């Protein structure tokens, strides 16, 4: 990422160019990303190709002022952090679903970030409702965050009796837990962006993926709450957990919410496309 791209990305986030890649700067960048770049799956339903290449991600997130899902958001954010001097590793994860069953390999992309002054951190701006600030990667106790109480713990063996890491504690898989419920299982082996292409394809085409079955556009608000547009249902969640929902009517109203609340300009209202394989 060249300097003009870095400057444009930082303007997108409303952040000044930092002097050093410190923990405090990482925390500011992480929170501002969640507040300004929506978590959204609109490309799947608008028929837009999702390409895991740095330039294409920047064109979308920065140039077009859109959002994306985990591969796009954490992929782009990881590139920005690396350009700012952070040591960044892309990590693959499998998301816990119904009955705490693990999802597919490369189900999720998260980041391990090393700062100049504070060790390693788990950064994740692409998981929807999750931590607002980076989590200390090596901490195994509870970590309080505006998004909940988190823990990162060594994973127990999975359904196949495997816990990852070739039976060494240092390389064992990690479970990320929020408010007592496991969110995803993280592999600690670094990956490259191209490794996640199969995950993008599956989540963009499979009738089992929740991304093909529904629309979502969501971001953290400045007061610590969250706003979410799911189809025509607009939800405002307060920092205290209170919720207000309303159904939007005319297309103009829906497009207005995308534009005014999420900064996304659309020519038409997205609708769930499906996969042609629904039962």
Automatic annotation (TrEMBL):
Keywords: Transferase
GO molecular function: acetyltransferase activity
Entry keyword Transferase: yes
Transmembrane annotation, as ranges: none
Family: Belongs to the arylamine N-acetyltransferase family.
Protein name in UniProt: N-hydroxyarylamine O-acetyltransferase
Provenance organism: Streptomyces azureus
């Amino acid at each position: 990422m060249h300097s003009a791209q870095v400057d444009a990305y930082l303007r997108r986030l409303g952040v000044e160019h930092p002097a050093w890649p410190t923990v405090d700067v990482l925390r500011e960048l992480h929170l501002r990303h969640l507040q300004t770049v929506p978590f959204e799956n609109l490309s799947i339903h608008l028929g837009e190709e999702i390409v895991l290449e740095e330039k294409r991600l920047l064109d979308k997130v920065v140039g077009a002022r859109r959002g994306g899902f985990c591969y796009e958001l954490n992929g782009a954010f990881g590139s920005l952090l690396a350009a700012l001097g952070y040591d960044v590793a892309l990590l693959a994860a499998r998301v816990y679903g119904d009955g705490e069953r693990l999802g597919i390999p490369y189900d999720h992309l998260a980041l391990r970030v090393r700062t100049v002054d504070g060790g390693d951190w788990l950064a994740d701006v692409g998981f929807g409702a999750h931590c607002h600030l980076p989590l200390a990667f090596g901490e195994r106790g509870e970590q309080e965050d505006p998004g909940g109480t988190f823990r990162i713990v060594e994973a127990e063996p999975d359904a196949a009796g495997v816990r990852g890491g070739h039976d060494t504690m240092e390389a064992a898989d990690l479970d990320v837990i929020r408010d007592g419920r496991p969110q995803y299982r993280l592999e600690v082996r670094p990956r490259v962006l191209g490794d996640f292409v199969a995950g993008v394809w599956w989540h963009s085409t499979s009738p089992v993926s929740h991304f093909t079955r529904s629309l979502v556009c969501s971001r953290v608000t400045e007061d610590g709450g969250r706003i979410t547009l799911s189809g025509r249902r607009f939800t405002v969640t307060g920092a205290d957990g209170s919720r207000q929902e309303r159904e939007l009517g005319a297309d103009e109203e829906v497009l207005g919410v995308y534009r005014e609340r999420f900064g996304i300009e659309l020519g038409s209202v997205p609708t769930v496309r499906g996969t042609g394989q629904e039962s």
